[in-house]
């Protein structure tokens, strides 16, 4: 995977964000962090090797969005001490008819990763023309690359359906999510960790201005 260190000033705290499939770091560029906090964005999961050195941070706040929820649980060592772990519009069972994206829909998305297919996906992800127009200003990755990424995720999720390396401290569930069905997210997080429902689509980050609003326990 790629790690974009959008802020890497040798601070004592770190926000470690795992983006969703197809996303780029620019999707989180409006979120501000304090002077004492570095920010790393993990993305491009064609390779699931995590190479970030975390030992120097005394506080790590994990934020994972969409399929990044599964990726974070798969690659973060259970020995890593996390101050908080926040899941946003994703679950640990991302290909599942009850707890994730229904299997037929996931496979249908995989079979249609092309320019037109990505336009449809982004419309569903953003939920409104206004937000879609904003999202379309972010750099777009090539469809061939995105297909490789989603195929790699599909194959790895199918082999390891429910990695358990993270004790999630909270989750956010969007009530207008057209990617991960809201009801399936509720099913997954009920009894597992506290979750908050937010009035937002699958891409919810315009709701927040600062990482602190997401990571505060």
What do you see in this structure?
It is a single chain. This protein is an alpha/beta fold and 217 residues long. It has 7 helices and 7 strands; from the N terminus they run ββββαβααααβαβα. The protein has helices at 68-75, 103-111, 115-126, 129-135, 143-159, 182-189, 211-215, and strands spanning 2-7, 13-18, 37-43, 59-65, 84-88, 170-174, 195-198. A 7-stranded mixed beta sheet has the order 1-3-2-4-5-6-7. The mean pLDDT is 95.
Task: List its traits.
217 residues, alpha/beta, seven-stranded mixed β-sheet, 7 helices, 18% strand
- What ranges have pLDDT less than 50 throughout 5 or more consecutive residues? none
Overall pLDDT: 95
Molecular shape:
globular
Q: Approximately how much beta-strand content do the residues carry?
A: 15-25%
Largest sheet: 7 strands, mixed
Structural class: alpha/beta
Order of the strands making up the biggest sheet: 1-3-2-4-5-6-7
- How many DSSP E strands? 7
Query: What's the gyration radius in Å?
Result: 16 Å
Helix content: 25-40%
| CA(first)-CA(last) distance | 28 Å
Count every helix, treating DSSP H or I runs of 4 or more residues as helices: 7
User: What's the helix-strand series?
Assistant: EEEEHEHHHHEHEH
């Amino acid at each position: 995977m790629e790690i974009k260190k959008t802020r890497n000033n040798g601070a004592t705290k770190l926000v470690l964000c795992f983006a969703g499939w197809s996303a780029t770091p620019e999707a989180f560029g409006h979120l501000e962090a304090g002077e004492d906090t570095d920010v790393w964005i993990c993305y491009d999961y064609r390779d699931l090797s995590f190479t970030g050195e975390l030992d120097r941070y005394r506080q790590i706040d994990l934020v994972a969005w969409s399929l990044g929820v599964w990726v974070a649980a798969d690659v973060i060592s259970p020995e890593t001490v996390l101050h908080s772990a926040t899941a946003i519009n994703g679950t640990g069972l991302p290909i599942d008819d009850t707890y994730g994206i229904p299997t037929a829909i996931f496979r249908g998305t995989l079979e249609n990763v092309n320019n037109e297919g990505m336009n449809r996906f982004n419309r569903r992800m953003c939920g409104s023309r206004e937000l879609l127009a904003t999202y379309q200003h972010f750099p777009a990755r090539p469809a061939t690359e995105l297909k490789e990424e989603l195929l790699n995720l599909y194959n790895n999720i199918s082999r390891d359906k429910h990695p358990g390396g993270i004790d999630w401290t909270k989750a956010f569930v969007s009530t207008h999510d057209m990617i991960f069905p809201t009801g399936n997210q509720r099913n997954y997080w009920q009894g597992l960790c506290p979750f908050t429902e937010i009035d937002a689509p699958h891409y919810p980050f315009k709701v927040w201005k600062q990482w602190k609003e997401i990571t505060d326990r």
